[in-house]
Amino acid sequence: MGIFSKFISKIKGVSTADPLDWQELEAELLAADLGPSLTSSIIKDAKSIKGDDALASLTQILNSKLSSKSRTLSKAVSTSALIVVGVNGTGKTTSVAKLAASLKGSGSSVILAAADTFRAAAVEQLQTWGARIGVEVIAGKEGAEPASVVFDAAVRANEQQVSYLLIDTAGRLHNKSDLMAELGKVKRVIEKSLPVSEVLLVIDATTGQNGITQAKIFTEAVDVTGLIVTKLDGSARGGVALAIENALDIPIKFVGTGEAESDFAAFDSERYISGLIGE
């Protein structure tokens, strides 16, 4: 059942909802991780809805809270570099692999760069995925500088003239200035060889409003152009996707819904809004 399904059923056929209905809706929106600011804005807009056009009006209101920026993956004429960033534990490395599998499945050639060198498990994980999906992974020695791995990967991507170079980066947030310096250096190294078409931030939907905080920090470090939201299932907490787009005006481009390779898809805003409403 969607976050707004009970609300729709209550006001259909009547001109207004009573004060208790509005209190219940507010509580549900806050519980769904929309946050106080967005919740207040939606409640204010929703109070003008008439019963006979409740569904269409609410759909329009929710759509207006989403980013209007393109959700299509940007592509350069030659090889495109896609930098994937995010906090460790959000499913970042897995998302890199799933995106590579999706791109390969659509006919594009891909190389992966294991630049999360501070976490040995991340390099091994990406190499395992690479072997599984048939995509080459460029990795350095243990403890190698991320920038050196990225440089080697860019050289290889140019040699092979692949469509995409996907770069998995470190996700440490213990020191904000270190993060900004490291990601900035990685981006500058790539840009000397390849155009950076996208910087994709991976956010775990279950982290709620903390996801917005993470997004703000990473946006300060690098120019985030799109989001990959993981663990975005049919539960009520899926409202965080709406909150993030409204707060940052960064479009969600992909969603991950499970562990399997197939549990990854382009974000469908219409389907998402329908799910919130409970159609």
Question: If you had to describe this structure to a student in words, what would you say it looks like?
Answer:
The protein has 279 residues and is an alpha/beta fold. The chain has 2 domains: 61 residues, Four Helix Bundle (Hemerythrin (Met), subunit A), CATH 1.20.120; 189 residues, Rossmann fold. The longest helix is centred in the middle third of the chain and has 16 residues. An 8-stranded mixed beta sheet has the order 3-2-4-1-5-6-7-8, sandwiched between helices. Strand 6, helix 10 and strand 7 form a beta-alpha-beta unit. The termini are close together. The protein is elongated, with a radius of gyration of 20 Å.
Net shape: elongated
CATH architecture of the largest domain: 3-Layer(aba) Sandwich
Largest sheet: 8 strands, mixed
Write the CATH homologous superfamily of the largest domain. Answer: P-loop containing nucleotide triphosphate hydrolases
Question: What's the overall average pLDDT, rounded?
Answer: 86
- Strand content range: 15-25%
N-to-C series of helices and strands: HHHHEHEHEHEHEHEHEEH
Rg from Cα: 20 Å
Low-confidence stretches: none
Overall structural class, as computed from helix and strand content, comes to alpha/beta
Helical region count? 11
Q: Percent helix among the residues?
A: 40-55%
Catalytic activity: GTP + H2O = GDP + phosphate + H(+)
Subcellular location: Cell membrane
Protein name: Fused signal recognition particle receptor
Family: Belongs to the GTP-binding SRP family.
